[in-house]
Design a protein that fits this description.
36% of the residues lie in helices and 11% in strands. With 53 residues, the protein is α+β, with helices and mostly antiparallel strands.
Length: 53
């Protein structure tokens, strides 16, 4: 893996695990609303997406 690939991978990992990527659960209503977040695509970059199933 070259340097550019490592930097790109690190940026994707940082994006995936930033605090805004997590859903805070305060009660049952929040759990019901998780369907809005699950089963969607996560855009990692202009060319790359990841399906969240």
């Amino acid at each position: 893996m070259n340097r550019i690939e490592k930097i790109t991978l690190q940026q994707m990992i940082d994006s995936l695990f930033k605090p805004q990527a997590f859903v805070k659960i305060n009660g049952f209503d929040d759990i019901k609303n998780l369907d809005d977040h699950l089963g969607q695509e996560l855009t990692l970059s202009k060319e790359k997406t990841m399906a969240l199933d």
